[in-house]
Amino acid sequence: MLTLIGLLTIFCLVVLLLSGRMSPVLPLIVVPLLGALCAGFGTEEISGFFTDGVGKVMAIATMFIFAITFFGVLQDTGLFRPIIGFLVKLTRGNVIAVAVATAIIGMLAHLDGAGATTFLLTIPALLPLYKKLRMSPYLMLMLLATGAGILNMVPWAGPLGRSAAVTGLDVTELWRPLLVIQGTGVVLLVALAAFLGWREQRRIAATDGTLMDDGSVGRVGAPGEISDEERALERPGRMWINFSLFVLVLAALFTGVLPAGYVFMIGLSLALLINYPNGKLQMQRIAAHSSAALGMGMIILAAGSMLGILSGTGMLTSIAQDLIKVLPAGMVGQLHIILGVFGFPMEFLLNTDAYYFGLLPVVMEVVENHGVAAPSVVYALMIGNIIGTFISPFSPALWLALGLARLEMGKHIRYSFWWMWGFSLALFATAWALGLF
Fold first, then answer.
1. Angle CA(247)–CA(252)–CA(258) in degrees, nearest 5?
2. In sequence order, what are the residues at sequence separation of 6 or more whose Cβ sits closer than 8 angstroms to the Cβ of residue 161?
3. Comparing C-alpha atoms, which of 49, 133, 117 is closest to residue 84?
4. What are phi and psi of 216, to 5 degrees?
5. CA-to-CA distance for 146 and 188, rounded, in angstroms?
6. Which residues pair with 94 in a beta bridge?
């Protein structure tokens, strides 16, 4: 009975998360509560489950709130805009170079872990360049999406934070082994971009595009301008100070000298003092990024309550024990790897919340008795899935990107699916070879 209630709870949770008709916070809170009540648990027991669950994710929620605000403020100062503008100018007119620069720009722009910011920063600047060179904008979107997927493994991005919330592990500890995977992904994406740029160059030539000897297509206009409001927030004279602060924060995260949440608290305080010393302006910048920061923090806290109830009631353990009875013995210990291989296409069935809050806990319970550690499960499911984040119809940021570039979801999927899944499997194989699973 406990298994049945647990499965119904998770099924209802996943369906509501997929429907998109309500904020993820609501089903994460209400559905597990109803499940616990149906299973016969009283308010006193549920209170204990809630306290345990939220306590495990409090540090992660704190880190997210301050990290998103910190990177948002650095974006306001224009820290990354000159780098992107320089790359656009450097590659002007050369198809292969533009493709490579697009991949690099997408990764740089996603340093804050926010997909919407990435596409808002890059597409308006790159789209005129692609149109002038007669390059496919779907190539641009695929390279940006893949680069964002690689950088989405950073601790302040959603997937790793959700994984830490589910497992109770320290988010920076989970991240350190992923640095090698991210480095490999950067190299592979640059190589893929060069190849696809070469292929695009041949396509343009075959369709009567006029290519010069160096592979360029005439002169290209300047990238898109920024608004007066954005320009007023820029601090070009403090560029190197802001860059030094950015590097120091990343170094502190990597070394673990202080808890991640406290590092971002200090970083945000310094960023505001350096760039916006006026108290009223500081509150305006915090308010400008509070929606994204608090929204993610609330989701993490709600997920903590959900996991506290599912774990405390014994639902996850009961599901895992019964699932082991029906699975072939040889598959049980490898379930995380099997699901990881198909993690990319699963983006079309489960959104990020459903994948990490619905699937990950169950898989962890199933393979735990076969000696598979929690980090191995996280790496298998996340690396196999994360490149598909911005090809999924469940990604709001992708719809924003499609709107900015005036592209169609179906064409994006058809153009990008096999390239991105192949790239995902290459990263998965790298992680397997390194023993992360």
1. 155
2. 60, 63, 64, 155, 171, 296, 300
3. 117
4. -90, 165
5. 11
6. 216
Phi, psi of 77 (to 5 degrees): -70, -10
Q: How far apart are CA 68 and CA 89, in angstroms?
A: 29
- CA 341/CA 424 separation, integer angstroms: 9
Rounded CA-CA distance 340/5 in Å is 26
On whether the CB atoms of residues 156 and 300 are closer than 8 A, the answer is no
SS3 of 31, please?
helix
Burial class (CB in 10 A: 0-12, 13-18, 19+), 288: middle
Give the least confident one: 34-43, 149-158, 222-231, 344-353.
Answer: 222-231
Per residue in 172-224, pLDDT (tens digit) is 888 888 999 999 999 999 999 999 999 998 998 888 655 444 444 544 444 44
pLDDT at 270 over 80: yes
- Of 371, 346, 170, the residue nearest 360 (C-alpha): 346
Residues 315, 159: Cα–Cα separation, whole Å: 23
Model-wide pTM > 0.70: no
**CB within 8 A of 67, min separation 6: which ones?**
113, 155, 156, 260, 264
Alpha helices in 77-177 (DSSP H): 81-90, 95-109, 115-133, 137-151, 158-167, 171-175
* CB 304, CB 83: distance < 8 Å: no
pLDDT digits (tens, 9 = 90+) for 33-79: 999 999 999 999 999 999 988 887 788 788 778 887 888 898 889 88
Amino acid (1-letter code) at residue 150 = I
> Taking CA 348 as the corner, what is the angle to CA 72 and CA 184, rounded to the nearest 5 degrees?
60
DSSP state of 372: -
- In whole angstroms, how far apart are CA 428 and each of 64, 151, 278, 431? 26, 15, 48, 5
Strand partners, 216: 94
- Provide the residue type at 151 as one letter: L
CA-based diameter of the chain, in Å?
76
